[in-house]
Structures are given as structure tokens and as C-alpha cells.
Design a protein that fits this description.
By secondary structure, the protein is mostly helical. Helices cover 76% and strands 0% of the residues. It contains 14 helices and no strands. Residues 1-7, 13-18, 309-329 and 331-359 have low confidence and may be disordered.
């Protein structure tokens, strides 16, 4: 009798954990934080592998076992971020990306022996304070993401109006970017942010429907699941394209903080418009949540500020102590790749994918 009741008790306990809104909310936060920390570790491992390969010889970085370990860890971290969207509001998971920046700064000091600057400590303190406010004052309600809910929200008038305005703005920016050759960093990052809002909506929809299917309510038989899956893949692909272009035109120290701010803002707006995550939220909670976002933004700017920039020197001038031999040239190229790569720790799934691509 005890043996037969044990599976039932386990199933009931699991159902209780998944159905309790507060436990589900905390589970999403923990998964997201752990995922971002794992991604930070993977970035530093891959950066270390690049540096070690450049010191040992001219072998490609992808022949290093350590580099592949970092890639695997990044996949695990991104999977955790993806799963977190199924348990917590999108307006909370996106700002938690600052955890990756904080962890990367700390790990680089311990693992890569980099210097901890005063601005890093101030920025880390602000980001941690902002994260605490985000977790405390974010919407604590949990609504199961079903195919019917996603389909209903997708055809609601406020989302259709939001989508129409977003498409118009995107077309105008794309016209100015392509035809008028206006390549300001804010313009490129706005293009990425507009795509990111669709990415957040689709990622949460896909993750939420998979979560509900695992809990026993099958959602994968509905066409809206595959529509959202296609939107997720397409928006991620175009984000990667524009982020690659941004990294070629501008320095990572400029791209990272601006992208983090724009991505987080677009994710919050997408969560409000599509999932009504701020519905019935007290005015004080909204104010403190936005204040927490502001502190996180300031923290990321301070951590990314005045990082070593990758700039091309004047070809007509070569310093006497910088005359490159083959070993020095290989090392400079490897450091350029890894600096660009390590600086992109503030992004979500598709944002970090461009880091992998650049490496």
C-alpha cells in the first residue's frame, strides 16, 4: 500500500509546486539567474581558451576541448533562460540579464586575473540593488500560457495596434538605414529592439505552451504553437544579422549597454501589451519596478564603461614597441575576438548567439 501511494504523493507534490503561483514565480527567477551565471562562466571559459590557444601557437580555437566545454555550458544556460519564460513574467526575466554582466565581471577577475575597477564595484552594487527591486516589485501573478490565451491575445485590438505601429517604425528605420545610409548606433539598436519585442512574445508563448504540455495539458497540437515557433526563429535570425552589423561598425563597449537597455525596455512593453503583466499592479509597485530597471541600466553602463576598445590604428603609424611579429599578430587577433565576445554577456538567447558567431 505504501509503495502504491508513493508515486501518487510524488505526483501531487509536483503538481502543487507547479500550480502554486508564488513557487512557480520563484522557480522562474532561480532558473533565470542560474542560466545567466552559467552563460557568464561559459563566456569566460571560451575567452580563456582563445587566449591560451593564441599563446601556444596557431591552432584554431575550435580545436580546444575547453572551448567546446564553454559552448556546451552556454547551451545549458540558454536552455535555462528559455525555460524561465514559462514560469515568470517576461518583464522580469529580461531585466535579469544584468546578472550575466555582474557575474562575468566577477568571474573575469577570479578566472582571467583581470582588474576590478571602482566603476565595476559601483556598477555591480547598483545592478544588484536594481535586481532586488525588480524581483520584489515585479508582477507576482502567474497565468498559464495556453494556446487559446496566446491566440486570443494575438488578435486583441491593443496588440494589433502595437504591432502596426511597430511595423511602421521598423520600415521607416530600415529605409533610413539601407537607402539613406544613416548608420547611427541608436538606429541599429532600435531595429534590434523592435525585433526583440517579437522574440520575447514568441519565446514566452513557446516556452509556456511546452511547460503546460509537460504538466499534462497538451498544447503542441494547436497551429498557434508553430506560428510562434516560426516567429521566434525568424526574429532571432534577423536580430543576429543586425547585431553583427552593429559589432562591425561600433565598439562592444557602446553596443552592450545600449542593447541591454533597449532590449529590456522592449521586453517590458511586450509583456505589458501582449500578456497584460502589469494589470491590477499597484502604482507603487510599478514605480519601484521601473526604478529597479533604472538602477540596473546604470549598473551595466558603469561596468561596460571605458572597457578596452577595439579600434583600428592609423596604417601610416606603427609604434616601435608594437611592431608585430607573427606571434603578436595572432595574439592581437585572438584578443580582439574574445573581447568582443566577452562583452556581449548582457544579451538573451539570440543576443548571445551572435557572440558565439563572432567568436
Amino acid at each position: 500500500m505504501a509503495n502504491s501511494s508513493s508515486p501518487q504523493m510524488t505526483s501531487a507534490l509536483r503538481a502543487s509546486i507547479l500550480e502554486n503561483p508564488l513557487r512557480t514565480y520563484l522557480l522562474g527567477i532561480i532558473i533565470s539567474i542560474c542560466g545567466n551565471v552559467v552563460i557568464s562562466i561559459s563566456l569566460n571559459i571560451q575567452k580563456y581558451a582563445h587566449v591560451r590557444q593564441s599563446q601556444r601557437g596557431s591552432k584554431p580555437y575550435y580545436t580546444s576541448v575547453m572551448w567546446w566545454c564553454g559552448v556546451v555550458l552556454m547551451g545549458v544556460g540558454e536552455l535555462g533562460n528559455f525555460a524561465a519564460y514559462g514560469f515568470a513574467p517576461a518583464s522580469l526575466i529580461a531585466p535579469l540579464g544584468c546578472v550575466s554582466v555582474i557575474a562575468s565581471a566577477v568571474i573575469s577577475v577570479i578566472f582571467l586575473k583581470e582588474t576590478m575597477r571602482p566603476s565595476d564595484m559601483i556598477g555591480g552594487t547598483l545592478a544588484i540593488t536594481g535586481t532586488y527591486l525588480l524581483v520584489t516589485f515585479a508582477p507576482h501573478t502567474f497565468t498559464p500560457i495556453t494556446a487559446h490565451l496566446v491566440q486570443y491575445n494575438a488578435f486583441s485590438w491593443h496588440f494589433l495596434l502595437y504591432l502596426f505601429i511597430e511595423v511602421i517604425i521598423f520600415c521607416i528605420l530600415l529605409y533610413l538605414y539601407k537607402r539613406k545610409n544613416m548608420k547611427h548606433i541608436v538606429m541599429v539598436m532600435l531595429l534590434v529592439a523592435l525585433l526583440a519585442s517579437l522574440t520575447v512574445i514568441s519565446v514566452k508563448a513557446v516556452s509556456g505552451m511546452i511547460t503546460e504540455s509537460i504538466k499534462g495539458q497538451l498544447q503542441l497540437i494547436y497551429p498557434i504553437f508553430y506560428v510562434m515557433l516560426v516567429v521566434m526563429i525568424a526574429s532571432c535570425a534577423f536580430q543576429i544579422k543586425f547585431l553583427n552589423q552593429a559589432m562591425k561598425m561600433f565598439d562592444a563597449t557602446e553596443v552592450v549597454p545600449i542593447n541591454f537597455v533597449f532590449f529590456t525596455a522592449s521586453a517590458i512593453v511586450a509583456g505589458i501589451v501582449f500578456y497584460q503583466e502589469f494589470e491590477d499592479l499597484a502604482l507603487l509597485n510599478i514605480f519601484m519596478f521601473l526604478f529597479g530597471c533604472l538602477l540596473s541600466f546604470l549598473g551595466v553602463f558603469l561596468i561596460a564603461r571605458n572597457r578596452p576598445k577595439i579600434k583600428q590604428q592609423d596604417r601610416n603609424f606603427i609604434a616601435m614597441d608594437r611592431i608585430p611579429g607573427r606571434r603578436h599578430t595572432d595574439k592581437v587577433q585572438a584578443e580582439a575576438k574574445t573581447t568582443t565576445y566577452g562583452s556581449l554577456a548582457a544579451k538573451l538567447m539570440c543576443n548571445r548567439a551572435v557572440e558565439t558567431d563572432d567568436s
